[in-house]
Amino acid sequence: RPVPKGCTYGKPKTHGINQLKFQRSLRSVAEERAGRRCGALRVLSSYWVAEDATYRFYEVIMVDPFHKAIRTDPKIQWIAKPVHKHRELRGLTSAGKSSRGLGKGHKFNQTNGGSRHAHWKTRNTLSLRRKR
User: Which of 41, 78, 88, 117 could disulfide-link to 35, CB 3.0 to 4.6 Å?
Assistant: First the structure.
């Protein structure tokens, strides 16, 4: 990994940094960059367009939340709510969700409760009744 002077940042010095891979897809990175660039728009989704030996190109679908057609259409007006600001930065688009291990069924039972950390916390927390 390209880190300054080979610093391992909090790991034991024998662990190294060479075989660490980036955990998110290039598609989610493209959505994030587009969302940062056009801050007033909301990222809805994205899809692959082309690639060459160096780059991969995605088209990112963005929505203007203040457009009257968006605000009055019941099917898409959910994206105009303030809670959906910068969905792409919080892993709420389909590309972001795929790297978080979210889904339904037995293949996704390591993220019950919303995330890996939440699932770990419920398994490792002892809750006792107050008067017992």
Answer: 88
The amino acid that residue 71 corresponds to is R
What is the C-alpha separation between 109 and 71, in angstroms, rounded? 36
* pLDDT tens per residue across span 46-91: 999 999 999 999 999 999 999 999 999 999 999 999 999 999 999 9
Sequence-distant (6+) residues with CB within 8 A of 99 are: 23, 24, 25, 28, 91
CB 64 within 8 A of CB 40: yes
CA 37 to centroid of chain Cα atoms: 17
Whole-number Å distance between alpha carbons of 31 and 36: 9
Residue with tokens 């899809």: 47
Q: What is the pTM of this model?
A: 0.82
DSSP 65-109: TT-HHHHH-TTTGGGGSGGGTTGGGGT-SHHHHHTTT--SSGGGG
Reduced to 3 states (helix: H, G, I; strand: E, B; else coil), residue 4 is helix
Tens of pLDDT along 63-73?
Answer: 999 999 999 99
